Amino acid sequence: MNEIYNFLKDCDNYYLATTDGKQPRVRPFMSIKIYNDQLYILTTKDKNVSKQMHKNPKVELCAYNGDEWIRVTACVKEDDDINAKQAILDDFPKLQEMYEATDDNVETFYLENITATISSFEGKPKVIEL
User: Has this prediction a pTM greater than 0.90?
Assistant: First the structure.
């Protein structure tokens, strides 16, 4: 889990893919945190990404660090724990400017059934399953 977290965190941004049922949707994300031995992300309930994850919890994350890229396939599960929200906000000052953990619109999801593949143009891909 730490290897996945560090890769995504070191990239500053990663891309989160969901589906609206008809079309894949990809957008940049920055929030990622290990909390209670789970990988967590944060968003808000009013965004389409939230609505899409509630309807279909299958997601993919992808990031590139200039040498390697990671693709993470997982399912998300909502967790309304205010401490999880605050833990993520503590790590992302930009998000603190817009959101508060006590805001009912803020929500966190953790990833489960994770398969991550780290690849490059050289060598074999490394697969991590959690």
Answer: yes
